[in-house]
Design brief:
The complex is a heterodimer of chains A (about 240) and B (about 90). Chain A is of the alpha/beta class and about 240 residues long. Chain A folds into two domains: about 90 residues, Beta Barrel (Elongation Factor Tu (Ef-tu), domain 3); about 120 residues, Rossmann fold, CATH 3.40.50. Chain A contains five helices and eleven strands, in the order βββββαββαβαβαβαβ. In chain A, the strands form two sheets. Chain A has a six-stranded antiparallel β-sheet. In chain A, strands 9-8-7-10-11 form a five-stranded parallel β-sheet, sandwiched between helices. In chain A, β7, α2 and β8 form a beta-alpha-beta unit. The two termini of chain A are about 30 Å apart. Chain B is mainly beta and about 90 residues long. Helices cover about 5% and strands about 35% of the residues of chain B. Chain B is built from one helix and eight strands, in the order βαβββββββ. In chain B, strands 1-4-5-6-7 form a five-stranded antiparallel β-sheet, with no helix packed on it. A three-stranded antiparallel β-sheet of chain B has the order 3-2-8, with no helix packed on it. Classes of the chains: A alpha/beta (about 240), B mainly beta (about 90). Chain A: Keywords: 2Fe-2S, Iron, Iron-sulfur, Metal-binding. Chain A: Pfam families: FAD_binding_6, NAD_binding_1.
């Protein structure tokens, strides 16, 4: 028995998030469960036997044998075009996991939380927000979500009416909605400044974004050991 | 500044194939500069021909992991020690 077996996963539900991203819900018999923030490896195998795999964060807390991923299309990618444009209900891929026990939020933790998302780095943070809701946790959550343009936001409807105790703020780096006070631009220390530095922070996004945000948090007085980061880098998609 | 790297979270799957515990939460000490921090915080380059995890402090190579069709090579010469969390409820079993 392999320690981390590949399991057959059947696509059972699809939700469109943006023009280039969709949420895929898989039914995975034998799924052992997972924590908010963990990721999985997805493997595709072609008829000729060629196979390739990528890591994706899980977008929702444990729900039986259902595993929910949100995948953003990476142009010229090898896996994401298939997952975002071709895979249909009833189709199968292979999934193994969950893996990664460091970038996780546990519902029994009561400390206030700051979530900082860059682009599709929102996915594991959404799992934390949903896990908080499911657990009825009253830990204060604050989300700062940076995207290029308004129509690139994932989970827009769900975040439009946030749970009590969840504060949501957006940063637009290229184009803002009409009448938006903050001019478009990359994340800056004032975006992250808040009343207290006595909080747990989770920062997820492309490598450059994560470096910038984590450095700014440290400069604002946050303790490095309370900042957890996950970097995407230039993924091969 | 080079930003073409991932972090130690990307080692979770490959290491999970090998070990019963999640080594990304272990605290590694760099043989180069003596810094310590979670394996999840390493700078990871790859995936081809293998994954290379470097100390975020001094860029010394701490972990090399190469998957071949029938084996895994794991080179830890740049890691002085690994402190692996082992909660009470996992002891003695």
């Amino acid at each position: 028995m392999r320690r981390l077996p590949w399991r057959v996963a059947e696509l059972v539900e699809v939700r469109h998030e943006t023009t280039t991203a969709r949420t895929l819900v898989f039914e995975v018999p034998g799924w052992p469960g997972h924590l908010a923030g963990q990721h999985v490896d997805v493997r595709l195998t072609a008829p000729d036997g060629y196979s390739t795999q990528r890591s994706y964060s899980v977008a929702a807390p444990e729900q039986g044998e259902r595993v929910e991923l949100t995948v953003e299309l990476v142009r010229d990618g090898e896996v994401s075009p298939y997952l975002t444009e071709i895979l249909e209900i009833g189709d199968q891929v292979e999934i193994r996991g969950p893996v990664g026990g460091w970038f996780v939020w546990r519902p029994e933790r009561v400390a206030p939380v700051l979530l900082v998302a860059g682009g599709s780095g929102m996915v594991p943070l959404m799992a934390m927000i949903r896990a908080r809701r499911e657990a009825g946790s009253s830990a204060p959550f604050r989300l700062i979500y940076s995207v290029r343009e308004p129509d690139q936001r994932f989970y827009l409807d769900e975040l439009a009416s946030p749970d009590p105790g969840l504060d949501v703020a957006y940063i637009f780096t290229r184009k803002t909605p009409d009448g938006w006070a903050r001019p478009p631009g990359r994340i800056m220390p004032p975006d992250l400044a808040g009343a207290s530095t006595d909080i747990d922070s989770f920062v997820c996004g492309p490598t450059g974004f994560v470096e910038a945000a984590a450095d700014q948090l440290i400069a604002l007085g946050h303790a490095a050991e309370r900042i957890r980061t996950e970097r995407f880098g230039p993924t091969g998609g | 500044m080079s930003i073409d790297y991932l972090d130690g979270n990307a080692l979770a799957g490959p290491l999970g194939e090998l070990f019963a515990v999640d080594l990304t939460v272990a605290v590694g000490t760099c043989a180069g500069c003596g810094n310590s921090g979670p394996v999840a915080g390493l700078r990871v380059y790859g995936p081809a021909p293998g994954l290379v995890g470097r100390c975020a402090g001094c860029e010394e190579v701490m972990v090399r992991l190469v998957r071949t069709p029938d084996a895994v090579w794991l080179d830890l010469r740049g890691t002085l020690s690994l402190r692996i969390p082992m909660p009470d409820d996992q002891q003695g079993g």
